[in-house]
Amino acid sequence: MDKGWVTNAIAVGLVGASYAVEGMGSSALRSAGLFALSGAVTNQLAIHMLFEKVPFLYGSGIILDRFESIREALKSLIMEQFFTPEKIESFIQSQEKKIDLTPIIEETDFTPAYDALLKSVMESPMGGMIGMFGGEALIAKLKEPFLEKIKASTIEISQSESFMNALNTHLHEGSGAMTDNIDSIVTARLAELTPVMVKEMVHTLIQEHLGWLVVWGGVFGGAIGLISSLLL
User: Fold this and answer.
1) Which residues of 78-96 are buried (b: 16+ CB within 10 A; e: fewer)?
2) pTM as predicted
3) Which of 90, 96, 154, 165 is the most buried (most CB within 10 A)?
4) Contact (Cβ atoms closer than 8 angstroms) between residue 8 and residue 218
5) What is the pLDDT of residue 129?
């Protein structure tokens, strides 16, 4: 059950119970109940006004009215906290010694390289001679060894110090462009958000905590009402 409505029900219950009590206790109980109800309902209305427009109440529906500002704030938060050029550069530096292209190379199909070699050989002056001894069928026997050899050579090159230095240099130079690309992606994604989506997202995030505002409004209102009845 919603905490706000439970608080309201308790406050109304106190007011009702005050009529069953005689003497000074009746007045104190009634004041506590009325003040508690006032505090809880006021806070509940204030929370409702954050997300919904209420006719004739200026300032209500602030989440919907400030939709563009909230969307821009979300973008700034994402970019400034996670994707600054400094953070991207730091991430690249932490990963530069761990870059291993071997799995990618192992899955790469090097057949186009073999086809290019075959074409070059057959179109060369040696092509006619090879044709006399079986042509492409003869060279086809070399396909698998050739592919294995070129794959192993590519892995060896990718692990060389000169290659790693060149790769890391390009990664560092591209951190600024990477930030721009991420900015474009975030902007495009946030552009898909509608005011209703933002309202629901914010409401979901803070609903539990806002519910306690109603509870504490009732508690403090009740305490103030009780103290006031005792002082008067």
Assistant:
1) ebeeebeeeebbeebeeee
2) 0.49
3) 154
4) yes
5) 58
